[in-house]
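User: Predict the complex with dioxo(di-mu-sulfide)dimolybdenum.
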Amino acid sequence: PENQVELAVEGMTCGSCVSHVERALLKVPGVTTATVNLATGRASVLFRGSIASIEDLEAAVRGAGYEAKRII
Ligand code: 9UX
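Assistant: Here is the predicted structure with dioxo(di-mu-sulfide)dimolybdenum placed in the model:
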């Protein structure tokens, strides 16, 4: 089954930042969809909960150079 989570992403200032975060999330095994909104600073992620954890998602965002916190 797929899980959905919203992350608050801090530190994005341009459209390329959005691409960086989306790519980082999509590289995490189990992630199927990652949509990042620059204006709201939010990332919506669909992932297979048996493969990826929310911690994995947060770590990926941080690894790309941004801060992430679960909000929903
Ligand atoms: Mo350009 Mo957005 O360095 O960080 S990708 S401002």
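The chain has a mean pLDDT of 97.
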